[in-house]
Specification:
The protein contains 19 helices and 6 strands. By secondary structure, the protein is mainly α. It has a 3-stranded antiparallel β-sheet. Helix 2 packs antiparallel against helix 4, helix 9 packs antiparallel against helix 10 and helix 16 packs across helix 18. The protein starts with a helix and ends with a helix.
Length: 523
Amino acid sequence: MNESVLIARAERFLEAIKRQRIEVENIKDFESFIVIYHYLKDNLNELYELRDTMEIKGYKAPYSSLIRPSRSISTELKADEIHDVSRQTQFFRMKAAAKKNILDRVKSSISSHKIAIGHLEEFATIKCNVCKKIFKRHEIEFVESRKCSCGARDLILQKNEQGVYRLNIIRYLPLSGEYMLRMSDLHPLGREAFRNIVRILKHEKRGIVKTLSLVVKVFEDGRWIRKRVTLDAEDDLNYEREVRKEYGSDARIEFLQFHRKKPAIINDRHVQTALSIAYVKSAAEIAERIIDDVLGRVLKNKEKLKIYDDALKTAKESADSITDDVEDKEEIEKEELNELLRENNLIDSGGNIDKELEDNIKLRNEIQKKLFIEMPRILILWDIAKYYLTTSYDRRKKYSGPFPNLRPNLDSNQLKAFKDFDEQTTLFLKEFTDEKIEYIYNLKDVIAKKFEIENKIKGLHVKLNPPAVGAVILNDFGNLPVDRVTDLFSLPTKLVQNEKEKIETFGKPSSVKARKFLEMIKK
């Protein structure tokens, strides 16, 4: 396929996605759900095909074909020839930039579609009314042609109460790859919140050695020479033995350097960006809805603040109508504001603002930061923590879920991202929204305990209920009562209590494996 034709095809497809609005709020039954689900799945397949074709054609490194003429050649060229070469180089550079940009958009669109599909799969459970078969999560894609594997079409949609999902973020995902445009639309507080979330998702694991670079001194043809050698790092690698095996017993290592890989919590740049944008915009929508109620609860005198806001608005409008000069505008605005505040006895002759008003302004700024900066971070941290607590290691490793490229477990360095879990913002969410959320002062330790239990039961073939295990851990190590954790995870109290007894006593273990499991978790 011609390069310009391929780029045009990709742009048309992405623009068609941009025009198509995904209205998840209209999902009421199986039919409305499966239409959106298959639409996103079909888009994803087409995007994969576009990406693969572009990568085969060298779109990943489009500038590699641009070769500058050497100085010796350029000195031999005439002025008009140099001009022609420069124009040609500029033309090919523009084509290379177009290739790079379109591939970047396609990759961003792929990441956003994977996120959207993951949240839909977490949200829905499809049940066949004939054979009673249930399709959950990744199994939903096997519901083909809107019928069950038994052939029946009597399918119903049920909400998965135990799933980790936020359907309202889907409308904010850059599904057409326009993540740069979405980022530019963020307000100042939103941009700060975006940067905070990206920093969290980029939190890197302690370095794992992947390769080694060596300078080896080798005796060849009667003289010593130096060679650069690269080895892949493996467990129990004896690099000295490998060097001597390859270059003889006289080989000597003069220089050794370890190259480490540091995978992030979510190890994909486009997924990090898409999730950050979606959570920031979704949280901003919640913040706009509850901010008046929150301020009404914490502010002491809203009347003074209203007078101040009206005076500030009037002063700005007055300054805008008088001049376009920025410095003059600021000075006029300040003078006008002070005059209006003085008329309302909110500023004294010395220019000192009313103490109660000043406190209210500071408090409102703090609340705005809590809602517009802290809230997006708290929501995504809580969702990721809940996903770790309610899923098994194998599921996180095999399936992407609502957080594609999420690491199946984290090290102690990455768990620090969950340390700063703001209490006041969490309380606002609990009180003024219908969020099922709780402040956990030691959330990172709770998640670490889940990983610890998962590591201990590896290879024991022990059957556990992952959501119930997460609830037990939250009850034991998060200091939450059983009725609260069952409500958070939408679990029957009896199931959580049974899992708790299984972990504590393992039902008076009769088998060797069961006794071994009990001994290990009690250590």
